[in-house]
Amino acid sequence: MRILFILFLCGALNCNAQNKDYNKAYNDFKNQVKKEYDDFRKQANEQYAVFMKQAWEQYRTLPAIPKPKDETIPPMIVPDENRNKPIENHPIPIKEIVTPPSPTPQPIPIDPIKEQIQPQETNVDFNYCGTKCAIRINEEIKTILSNMECDNNHLSKVWTLLSDKGILNNTIRDCLTIRIDRELCDWAYLNMLSAFAKDVFGDSNEATLLAAYIYCQSGYKMRIGRNGQRLYLLYASEHRIYDVAYFKVEGVNYYPLECNKNQLEICDASFPQEKPLSLYIPQNQKFEYKASDVKTLTSKRYPDVQVQVQVNKNLIEFYNTYPSSEVNANFMTRWAIYANKPLDAKVKEKLYPSLKEKINGLSQLEAANKLLNWVQTAFVYEYDDKVWGHDRVFFAEETLYYPCCDCEDRAILFTRLIRDLLGLKTILVFYPGHLACAVCFTDNVTGDYISLNGKHYVVTDPTYIGAPVGMTMPDMDNAQAHVILLE
C-alpha cells in the first residue's frame, strides 16, 4: 500500500507541493484504500444477493466414490534361520511414483474484516471436540434470521441485511482467530462453524445460513442447497471424498454437510476468490487435552524398548469425523495425507523422550531396526473389515490409541517415527494388498532398495514380523510396486 501511496503522493506534490501535508495525504489515501476494500466486499455481497433471487437449479447427486477395496495380505513372520542372514543389496523395480501435491495456504476473506463496535453483542460459549470456544455475536442476528423462509427473495433479503449492516464482522473475526490460534485445518474449521451455529439456533435453517455466510466470508467455496423448506450447506473440496454422494456444479464437486437427499435445488452463484476446502492437516490441531488411558507397548526382540503412551481423546474424536479421500483421482495419495500429518505435540512430549533414550548412541541402522521391531511386535494386527466393517486408515495417534491396526497404519506410524527421531527421508511402498515403506539412510546400509534421484531407499516392512531393515516380505510382486513420496 505504501508503494501505491508514494505514486499517489508524487502526483499530488507535482500538482501543488506547497499545499499538501504528508500526514494528511497519507491518511486520506488509507481511507480511500479502506473504502475500496469495504466497497469491494459490499459489492460482492450485493451481487451475490441478487444472484440468490434467480440462480437456483435442480441437481441430483452423483454416486459416492467407494473406498478402495483391495486384497489383503496377512502379516508374515520371518523364519528364525533367516533373521541373521547377511543382507545383500538388491534393487527393486517400481511401476509408478506418486507425488501428492503440497498443501496450499488456507482461504482468506476477499478483504480484511474490520472490527466494529457492536452495542448488542454477547459471547456465545460452546464446545467443539472437547475444546471450549467463545465467539461474539450481535443479538440482532436472531431478529434478522427469525422466521426463516426458503424462497429466493427472502434468502436474498437476509443475505443483504447480514452484509449491509456488517453485524457479523466481529463474529467472523473471532471464528478466524480460533482457526489461527488452534491451527484448525479446513475440515475442523467447517465443523467448528457448524457447532457454533447450532449452539445459537439449534439444528435449523437459521443455523445453516449463519454457518454458510461465515464460511463464505472466510474465503471458502460453498453453495446453498434447498429441499422443500430445508436448507443445506454444500462445501467444495479439492479432494475426492469416499462414501459420500456429491453434487457436481459447473465441474466442481460439492459435498453436503449433514444431508442425505439425492436431489437438491442449489443456488449456483459464486463469490469472488472463493477456494475449495482441503483435507490436508499440515499442522497440529490444538484441541484441549483429554488424556486417554495409559498404554504400554513393548518390543519383543528388544524388550528394553518399552514405552507408555497416551493420546488426546479430543483429537481421536476429531479423527472419527474426518472423511477419507484422494487427490488427483489416485487412491494412493490418501496414505500420504495421513502420513504427512505431524504427530500431536502432547504425544511427542510423552513418547519421544523414551524412544530417544532407547536409540541414543546407536547407528542409523541399529536405531531403525529397534524402532522397526517395536512397530512390528508391540502392536496387535487385525483386519479393518473385522474391526470397522470397512477399510479405515489411521493417523499415527490412532495407531497408538486403538487396540489393533493393520499394515498401512504401521507403515504410516513408522515413517513418522523415522522422520522425527532420525531425521531421515522415507517413502511408502504399495504392493497390491500391502503397504510397506523404505528409508533413505545417509549411512551405508544394505538391503532391498528403491533408487530415486540417485538415492537409495532401503525397504523396511513393519508387517513382516521380525524382519530387519532391508528385507522384503516374500511373494511381493516388485514389478507392481508403487512409491508414494512423503514430505
Shape: elongated
Strand ordering within the main sheet: 3-20-21-19-18-23-4
Helix content: 25-40%
Unreliable segments of 5+ consecutive residues:
1-20
Mean pLDDT: 91
- What characterizes the major β-sheet? 7 strands, mixed
Q: Compute the number of strand runs.
A: 23
Q: What oligomeric state do the depicted chains represent?
A: single chain
N-to-C terminal Cα separation, in Å? 36 Å
Radius of gyration: 27 Å
Tally of alpha and pi helices: 15
Strand content: 15-25%
- Helix- and strand-based class? alpha+beta
What labels describe this entry?
487 residues, alpha+beta, seven-stranded mixed β-sheet, 15 helices, 37% helix
How does the SSE layout of this entry go?
Layout (H helix, E strand, L loop, with lengths): L1 H15 L5 H31 L3 E5 L15 E2 L2 H4 L6 E2 L4 E3 L22 E8 L2 E8 L1 H5 L7 H14 L3 H13 L4 H16 L3 H13 L4 E6 L2 E7 L3 E2 L5 E3 L2 E5 L6 E5 L27 E4 L7 E4 L3 H7 L5 E2 L6 H7 L5 H15 L4 H14 L2 E2 L2 H4 L8 H6 L2 E2 L1 H16 L2 E7 L2 E7 L7 E5 L2 E6 L3 E2 L16 E4 L2
Parallel strand pairs: 2-22, 3-20, 4-23, 16-17
Antiparallel strand pairs: 1-12, 5-6, 7-8, 7-12, 8-11, 9-15, 10-11, 13-14, 18-19, 18-23, 19-21, 20-21
Helix pairs in contact: 2-5, 7-8, 10-15, 12-15
